[in-house]
Prior knowledge:
Elements: H1 14-28, E1 53-58, E2 63-67, E3 73-74, H2 79-91, H3 93-99, H4 113-117, H5 129-138, H6 144-159, H7 167-174, H8 178-189, H9 197-208, E4 211-212, H10 214-225, H11 240-253, H12 259-265, E5 270-272, E6 277-282, E7 297-302, H13 313-326
Antiparallel strand pairs: 1-2, 1-7, 3-4, 5-6, 6-7
Helix pairs in contact: 1-13, 2-3, 2-5, 2-11, 5-8, 5-9, 6-9, 7-9, 11-12
The site of 6-diazenyl-5-OXO-L-norleucine has 13 residues, from loops.
Amino acid sequence: xxxxxxxxxxxxxxEWLQEYVDxxxxxxHNKIGDGEVASYIPELQKADPNDLGITIIGKGGMTISxxxxxxxxxxxxxxxxxxxxxxxxxxxxxxxxxxVDVEPTGEAFNSIMHLEMRQVKKPFNPLVxxxxxxxxxxxEGRTSDEKMEPIFELLTExxxxxxxxxxxxxxxxxxxxxxxxxxxxxxxxxxxxxSDLNITLETYFKQCxxxxxVNDLAQIGLILANDGIDPETRDxxxxxxxxxxxxxLMLTCGMYDASGKFAxxxxxxxxxxxxxxxxxxxxxxxxxxELPFLEGCGIGVYGPALDDKGNSIAGIRLLRHIASQWDLSxx
Length: 331
Ligand code: DON
């Protein structure tokens, strides 16, 4: 593996960074220890555990892509960032922060226990299942398709194409998701839901089943890193305040009960999904040496073998390596 931080400078070409990243991806792609692909959604078991892909898109458009970049995968929990953003745009930030808190749980993403034990007035945060299902219930629309439409519109604006739902994954989760139904019933009993439970869950399963690539995640990450503005067109796609809250939530809650470690060792807002995707938004940083992507970048990673928290093992290792080589941390 290429070692050392070298002396990065602006003369260094895209090809040169590409060589480094290719090397790191080749090194980490089978470093999955005893990680396994998710099996509680049966359709996700078809993924190749050793796949690893990454795309990094910088503010000036510089793009580094390596490994399994063409393998589409379902967005899963990364969609929780998008549904929260859309709900804030529809209902206003004040309304949403009344309905879901912004505190990390320290529990698994699909925990029910903490809701009952702590007798909370609202779910802990929109990035755990209980919070995300509540957000799906708040999205405007009478049907799940109506609720999904603004999410697709936002994605189309960011990506330049309209992604699709992977129907097999959607049906696979819909037909097996006993725990999410349990969470849904608990939320119904406590009065947190604002729509019919079945429509809410249908929306939630659909948003999780949107198919993306690492390029898509990098592009979304770049827009978030840039406070909601597309750096190419200068269009404001997400209001600045909403983008900033989304990033704060990603940093504190995005990797679930591994968020503290991720903040310590990688140090950027990120969100994982159980199909193995990770999105990261790297804000611009000030350093007194030249480093790659100083103006900020978006990163998409895919590595379907997961650790016991539900995060991509090789994906986190690769991000940790890149963050230390390029000094990406916001701290
Ligand atoms: O609700 C679920 O269990 C999945 N659709 C999404 C969970 C997920 O992605 C957790 N992430 N690591």
